[in-house]
Amino acid sequence: xxxxxxxxxxxxxxxxxxxxxxxxxxxxxxxxxxxxxxxxxxxxxxxxxxxxxxxxxxxxxxxxxxxxxxxxxxxxxxxxxxxxxxxxxxxxxxxxxxxxxxxxxxxxxxxxxxxxxxxxxxxxxxxxxxxxxxxxxxxxxxxxxxxxxxxxxxxxxxxxxxxxxxxxxxxxxxxxxxxxxxxxxxxxxxxxxxxxxxxxxxxxxxxxxxxxxxxxxxxxxxxxxxxxxxxxxxxxxxxxxxxxxxxxxxxxxxxxxxxxxxxxxxxxxxxxxxxxxxxxxxxxxxxxxxxxxxxxxxxxxxxxxxxxxxxxxxxxxxxxxxxxxxxxxxxxxxxxxxxxxxxxxxxxxxxxxxxxxxxxxxxxxxxxxxxxxxxxxxxxxxxxxxxxxxxxxxxxxxxxxxxxxxxxxxxxxxxxxxxxxxxxxxxxxxxxxxxxxxxxxxxxxxxxxxxxxxxxxxxxxxxxxxxxxxxxxxxxxxxxxxxxxxxxxxxxxxxxxxxxxxxxxxxxxxxxxxxxxxxxxxxxxxxxxxxxxxxxxxxxxxxxxxxxxxxxxxxxxxxxxxxxxxxxxxxxxxxxxxxxxxxxxxxxxxxxxxxxxxxxxxxxxxxxxxxxxxxxxxxxxxxxxxxxxxxxxxxxxxxxxxxxxxxxxxxxxxxxxxxxxxxxxxxxxxxxxxxxxxxxxxxxxxxxxxxxxxxxxxxxxxxxxxxxxxxxxxxxxxxxxxxxxxxxxxxxxxxxxxxxxxxxxxxxxxxxxxxxxxxxxxxxxxxxxxxxxxxxxxxxxxxxxxxxxxxxxxxxxxxxxxxxxxxxxxxxxxxxxxxxxxxxxxxxxxxxxxxxxxxxxxxxxxxxxxxxxxxxxxxxxxxxxxxxxxxxxxxxxxxxxxxxxxxxxxxxxxxxxxxxxxxxxxxxxxxxxxxxxxxxxxxxxxxxxxxxxxxxxxxxxxxxxxxxxxxxxxxxxxxxxxxxxxxxxxxxxxxxxxxxxxxxxxxxxx
Length: 990
Description:
Blueprint: H1 16-43, H2 61-71, E1 97-105, H3 108-111, E2 114-122, E3 125-130, H4 134-138, E4 144-147, E5 152-155, E6 157-162, H5 201-207, E7 210-215, E8 223-231, E9 265-270, H6 281-310, H7 328-334, E10 338-344, H8 347-360, E11 366-369, H9 377-380, E12 389-392, H10 410-416, E13 421-423, H11 435-444, H12 449-454, H13 458-463, E14 481-484, E15 495-500, E16 503-506, H14 543-551, E17 561-563, E18 567-578, E19 585-590, H15 591-594, E20 601-606, E21 609-615, E22 629-640, E23 642-645, H16 695-702, E24 705-710, E25 723-724, E26 726-729, E27 741-743, E28 748-751, H17 757-761, H18 769-780, H19 791-801, E29 806-810, H20 813-830, E30 836-840, H21 848-853, E31 857-860, H22 887-893, E32 898-900, H23 911-921, H24 928-933, H25 937-943, E33 961-965, E34 975-981, E35 986-989
Parallel strand pairs: 1-4, 1-5, 6-7, 9-10, 10-11, 11-12, 12-13, 18-22, 23-24, 28-29, 29-30, 30-31, 31-32
Antiparallel strand pairs: 1-2, 2-3, 5-14, 7-8, 8-9, 14-15, 15-16, 17-35, 18-19, 18-20, 20-21, 22-33, 24-26, 25-28, 26-27, 33-34, 34-35
């Protein structure tokens, strides 16, 4: 039997031959050291007979000296690691792969190095890059050859902040392992002990090009425990242990491997609001200092013990080597052997941790979330041991007080100050599949292209201490490689191939995948034939906005310049408008379509209305007055404004700061509605809770989302009757401003869902699905109040009559089927035609034909699915590279009227990016006009918003118009510069 080491034999040990050789060398060194100590003691004996005696050497002296020697060794790869011929993660039988004719982003030279050529993968490592010598190929058998045809190749993406596997999806009581209730200081806990290998998000993350993740325990403890870096490839033994990259030698127990340098360990710390269950920030700071003081005592005792042993004072040793299971991870922190990831948002917390690091002399490798870090680069530079990295969201800010000053410009500001930037997902806070999207957004807002790609590859690998094997394409590194269908920083870039340890993961290789037996070969890259797709996209200049953000410490004024005079938009490449019948969006003129030569498109606006729009001399009569305001769009476009649906825009300032919102919502299913309300169902009007000038609303307005439909929501609660939504203008100053409230009541909302696993964990009561459906049937059939004397009876009666849309928030296809039956039953008994809409609608594609036949609409929210709960775990059409179709495509094919929504108010400003992604994933089967309609015209029709139409003079335009500078509404190269409102008779220059 061969003594060749394989992962199946022991995933934590080096190969036996190498281990034996190193052990022999260490034994010789230890014997030599022991002999030297004895000789030194012999020749330095004092003359007094009282002191002349031989030191008794303990039988385990060699082990003690070896252990003491190990304390002085720095973590890192063993000598000769770069010259290895085979990866420790290599799966025997994996065929070599040769990627030909690739454009290779290596990750070297601050992310600026790009080479052209081939990549050879064999035995789990990169054997050659750029030029592959023929002699390397001659000895290989059955090599898979992939012709990249010039496409981009990068290292596999690295997510430094993920809870994948310990916040397992779908949410179930047994898969939520994130936070421990057992105290603020828990360095002995380990995320690997709770990793669920069947988390349905694993395969989706790989489909996004993610190959390595750091699995962090939660943020509700000051020291939450030890984190682990994992590869997402399912190993042959299917264990979580075999997924760990370079597991610490002491992964289980306190045994150390004296034959190799120690490996990096990882620890999660947190500060700020999340730990308030254990006290204030002062309590947290003390808990840190107390814990590290205990670790320091142990470290000092170990150092003293080793000092005596190394000079031969064996009889003065007091007991065994001082160590503690409980505190050994923190002792390693003080010895510089641990990469700390520190959850920290605000200046006060970051400053406190920097002071702590200097007090106890340890290094924090990365601050995570760090919403205010860009405001204090000089504080970060005071970190003991060097400048830390900062791991950020691209745009998930303002959802809590700590993140209120966060900015999309933070990555660029930090980079300009020499702070390494990392983009992360915090899965499932954001979709783990969308790690690259975080980098794309950072690039859009100013982070240089090389650093943007590095932020999800080499930068997180370096922060984790693994930049000798992942995050970069270099000979001798792990064979984690992604072949993209377009430039990685283009919105919608999709992996055509993904290899982890040289083993192909995309296309799906195994029948164990829920997508393996789908619709045949997935056509990745469909609709991306234009050479432009492989080029780095242009992005706007945000210098002015960035400067203002820093000057105002994250809260710059957001009001634009309002003008009622004539505004002339020049260099307009296209104008998109509503068709005269109001059924679709269409292009009024397009420079690209007309090939107008040297002419330019011109649109003239006066008092918020279009006076002229055309090419060349069509509007010449309007452009002679030099007093008019002229805006050069530089090839930009005019397009209908967008609508936000699904997030509580305008109903709260800070999502998790309840004092800034509406307050407690009563649920008739779980609480007693106050008798004074006089309504059994507790149906509330969202318009009564509207707040204008919230930052999320104003930022959405500046991004071209000028209208929002919002309904009352209860955070972390399963409220069945959210009440009545309202539609308003996001840029209005107050409720009495002209056109501020477009429609006081837009729709009646109802929710059908299974009990939340998290609510059950918190011992909260929940209502059964059967009860929810039974009550809805009863209300629609008029059993509550035939005469409409209560709000509940009145509005459910209106919904049954078709006077107001009934928006049912539902994800599960079985519940949707029952709702379609109820719709038929109600319509038959009452002789009416209901206007029913499914919102959320994750599994709606499973009933696309039936939904279309029933004339029911669907608002997908979010637009890209994630199996968050059991109700929406059947996301069988996640799109390329797993399936050809998407849920949107399937619904549109069945003539379903589809809208797109968002779930978080901070995402409303990026609605157009969601639309662009939907169009890209459809592979050319959705036009730009159809995509734009899903967050404008379609939502108007679904929600019955009929007050957006303009007056008869310009009824072919209707609603607000947005001017984009530099490109199309769905392009990364454009940004909003003006909002044209016929209702307000103004043009707002933003």
